[in-house]
Amino acid sequence: MAKQLIIMLLPLLFLLFILSEVVEGTKKSYGVYDNSNSVKLFVFGDSYADTGNFVGSPSYKQPYGITFPGKPVGRFSDGRVLTDYIASFLKIETPAPYALRNSSTLQNGINFAFGGTGVFQTLKVKDGPNMTVQIDSLEKLIQKNVYTKQDLQSSVALVTAAGNDYEAFIVNNKSIIEIKSFTTTLINQLSINVQRIHNLGINKVAIALLEPLGCLPRINAVTFHLSCVDLLNLVSENHNKLLLQTVLQLNQQVGKPVYVTLDLYNAFLSIIKTLQKKRDENSTLMNPLKACCVGDGLKNNCGSVDDKGEKKYSVCEKPELSFFWDGVHPSQNGWQAVYTLLQSSLGQLNHG
Ligand SMILES: *[C@@H]1O[C@H](CO)[C@@H](O)[C@H](O)[C@H]1NC(C)=O
Ligand SMILES: *[C@@H]1O[C@H](CO)[C@@H](O)[C@H](O)[C@H]1NC(C)=O
Ligand SMILES: *[C@@H]1O[C@H](CO)[C@@H](O)[C@H](O)[C@H]1NC(C)=O
Ligand SMILES: CC(=O)N[C@H]1CO[C@H](CO)[C@@H](O)[C@@H]1O
């Protein structure tokens, strides 16, 4: 197994080596196009924002990507994810994933987000880059003059993280009692991270509030997908309350609205409620608390196959009517609906 992994990783490492060489030499080629005034998007976080950094993960396997672009390309959804919608709001193309970057794909910014990672090291991907390492990567590109001060000033950063940190905490500590003090530690580190992003020169930093953890299909399975688990939603609420206070203080400190929050919590809840209501009137509609893609193994993983390559999952008839794609991630339909509700917050990202 380990041997196989190394064989799989070797070409990848070689590719990364080549790509990093390419980036070293980009200052010149970067000057070729003249759009240094156009906005760029830099993305940090986890699978809610990853558009292809986690090569070899389920997001690169069937049936991920069936709605858009029609094949698996590294998004943890059937189609577009939060990053795609924020980019479209900024009227730019989705920035390239850091792992796949080359000199011709730098003009829209870069996506450093990596599925399974967190603010701290998480369990899922022990060696996936946490948010600190993701910010280090941008810092290195700036040191190499890939991005100029002017580029960064007109740029926007998107930050999504913490869900995996809570999962790691709960699995590791097997206790929900100490979670309040963990939230404080987590927000402190997140605060350091977003200030670092601003100090690198980015003047607009959009920070996603934590989604209602208790509504994720993997969690609400304990209610047979009938309701969200309130206890875990309280964890999200407490996290968001502290994060909102922190953001308020940070904006006061810098004296301008650099930090903007995106309220995934209320967006998720509101959409789920609306869909539940519609379903009361039309029972053929999908339960928004259920995943569209469901695995039948013990781990219940969307995209899993058996030893013979036979698929061990099923996909709902109409992904375009679902809210959740798998046990954790919204479908494209879900993200689109969330995006609609985030419009007023996103307006604050326009550089005034
Ligand atoms: C750069 O990456 C893009 C998108 O992945 C690809 O379409 C293009 O061919 C690449 N260009 C070079 C020079 O490798
Ligand atoms: C992030 O990962 C690096 C490298 O594994 C590690 O040294 C660092 O302590 C981690 N940072 C946090 C905040 O967990
Ligand atoms: C109920 O929803 C289905 C979609 O699943 C739709 O095709 C059908 O027209 C709806 N029925 C009514 C009465 O609205
Ligand atoms: C993995 C994880 O989050 N472990 C935490 C368990 O609780 C202690 C005490 O609060 C933390 O220091 C650990 O980080």
UniProtKB/TrEMBL annotation:
Top-rank taxon, per record: Eukaryota
Keywords per UniProt: Hydrolase, Lipid degradation, Lipid metabolism, Signal
Protein name (record): GDSL-like lipase/acylhydrolase
Gene Ontology molecular function: any one: hydrolase activity, acting on ester bonds
Annotated family: Belongs to the 'GDSL' lipolytic enzyme family.
Signal peptide annotation: 1-25
Keyword NADP annotated: no
GO biological process, one term: lipid catabolic process
InterPro entries given in the database record: GDSL, SGNH_hydro_sf
